[in-house]
Amino acid sequence: MLDTVLLIVFSLIGLSIMLNFWRLMKGPSVPDRILALDTMYINVIALIILYSISMGTGLYFEAALLIAMLGFISTVAVCKYLLRGDIIE
Amino acid sequence: MISEWIVSAFLLFGGLFIFIGSLGLIKLPDFYMRLHGPTKATTLGMASILIAAMVFFANSEHGLSVKEILITVFLLITAPISGYMLIKSALHHKLNATEETKGLDKIEKD
Amino acid sequence: MRLQGQFKWLPTPIFSLFLFVVWLLLNNSASIGHILLGTILALSIPLITFSFRDRQPTIIKPSLALKQLFIVLYDIVVANIEVALLILGANKKLRPAFIKVPIDLTHDLPITILASCVSLTPGTVSADVYPIKENLLEGEQIGQRYLLIHVLDLDDEEALITLIKQRYEMPLKEIFQC
Fold it and tell me: In 3-state terms, what secondary structure has residue A53?
C-alpha cells in the first residue's frame, strides 16, 4: 500500500514543482519569481524526503537540511538586494 | 502494519497540502494574496511529511531518527521571516494589489 | 523585563539550551561524549558571541512560554486548513485587506515573535512595523507602534485586532514582563 501512496505523493509534489516553475517563468514581478523559487526549494526538500523513504535510507536528511538552509539564506539575500540594492551595507 | 497506515495518511495529507499551496501560487490574483499559500499550506505539508518520515524510520531497522524534527523546526522558524522579507520588498516596489483590497491607504512610504 | 540572565557565565540560558538540543539532534545520539561536547559548546558559544549581540529581553515565565507554544502550534494546524479551503474556493469570494494593529511591545525580539505568530496563523501575513526607523527624525521618540498585516479574507476588522491582541500579544507581554 505504501508504494501506491508514495507514487501518488510523488506525482502531487512533481505537479506542484511544475506549477511553481510556471509562476517562475510567468512572473509578472521580481518578488513573484522569488516567491516561486522559495516554494520550489521547500517542495524539493519534500521530494528528497520522499525519495529517502522509498529507498529506505536515512542518508538524505543532511541534504534536505542543507537545502533548507541555503534556500532560506538565498531568499533573504535576494530580497535584501531588491530592498536596498546591496546585500551588506 | 498500523504504522504503514499512519505513514500513508500523513504522506497523503502532506502531499495534498503542498499541492494546495502551489495551486494558490498560480490561482490567486495578486502578489500579496499569493504569499499566503506558500507561507502557510506548505509549512504544514512539510511538517506532516517529516512526521511520516519519522514514523517510517522509527519502525524500520534504522531505529528512531530525530533529524526530521530539526528540519521541521527550521522551516517553521524561517517561513515567516522569508515571507516578511518578500512582502517588504513587494511594498518597496509598490506592486499593485487587486482593486477589492481594503485599507491600501494604510501603507506608509519607506 | 530583564535584559540579562541571572548568572554572568550563562548570559542567555534559553539559547544555550537550544544549542545543546540542536547539537544532540544533529548527531542523532545521546552518548556521554556528545553530551559533554554539547555542554561545552552550549556554554562557550553564548559567552563568545554575547558581546556583539543586541541585548534582548529574556524569558521570565518559561511555563507560560511552553503553553503559548502549544497554543500557536494548534492554531497553525487550524489556520492552515482554513487557508487551504479559502484557496480552493472561488477567487471572487475573497475579501483581501490591509489592517493596522496597534502594539504595546517595545523590544525587537518580542515584536519579531509576534509578527512570526501572526504570519503563521489565521489567514494573515505581517508586512511591516510602523513607524519605520529610517523615516524618523534625529532623536525623535517612537510613540505608538503599529503592525501592518495583510489579511486574505477579512470579515470583521475590530474582531481580528482584538483576537491578535488577546491571543498572541498578551501572553508575550507576560512572558517577557514588558
Answer: helix
> What is the grid cell recorded at B8?
500513508
Q: Give which of A57, A53, A46, A60 is closest to A12, Cα–Cα.
A: A46
What is the set of domains in chain B, with CATH numbers?
2-98 (1.10.287)
Q: Are residues C108 and C169 in the same domain?
A: yes
Contact B100 C96 (CB under 8 A): yes
Together in a domain, C162 and C131: yes
**C contacts of B27 (beta carbons < 8 Å):** 87, 91
Strand partners, C7: C10
* Pair C81, C161 in one domain: yes
Cβ contact, residue pair B89, A15, below 8 Å: no
Closest-CA residue of chain B to C27: B67
Grid coordinates of B57: 524510520
Block residue for cell numbers 516554494? A39
Predicted TM-score of the model (pTM): 0.85
Tens place of pLDDT for every residue, chain B, 110 residues?
Answer: 788 888 899 999 999 888 988 888 888 888 888 888 877 777 888 889 988 888 888 887 776 777 788 888 888 888 888 888 888 888 888 877 777 777 677 776 66
C152 and C87 within one domain: yes
ipTM exceeds 0.90: no
- Domain total in chain C: 2
Q: Helix B67-92 to helix A30-55 angle, to the nearest 10 degrees?
A: 170
C106 plus C69 within the same structural domain: yes
Residue C98 lies in a domain: yes
The Cα–Cα gap between B103 and C125 comes to 15
Q: Which one-letter DSSP state was computed for residue C100?
A: E
Question: Which range of residues forms the domain containing residue C94?
Answer: 62-176
